[in-house]
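Why do we care about 3D structure at all? Because function follows from shape, and shape follows, mostly, from sequence. That is the central idea of this module. The next example makes it concrete: a single protein chain, its amino acid sequence, and then its structure expressed as tokens.
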Amino acid sequence: MSGLKVVQSWLGYRMKKRKGKKSSPLDDITPRAWTGDYTTEFLHLLNLLTQTVALQPQQAAFLDAILAGDLLPAAALGPVPEQWRAAPKVHASQGTLEIATPPSKLLH
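And the structure:
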């Protein structure tokens, strides 16, 4: 994980004397006590990290297979259709992105 101490970082952002970079005064707004949600999130984080570490041998094997495989030249992909070149539109009211072509049509 690029040297990041995941558990230490996660805890640091949730302590009374918060650690980490501040981006705005809103960063100072924190719960006065440890919440049940924090416990649930922390257990999920530990579970995820445990599963990720357990999968490391398989991940290494997949990476080795990918690196040993053939390369696909960019020219083999063909030109990008015009409708896919436009940036997606942001709808401020929904906070979502509109996709020009529905995913179901991309597969056909």
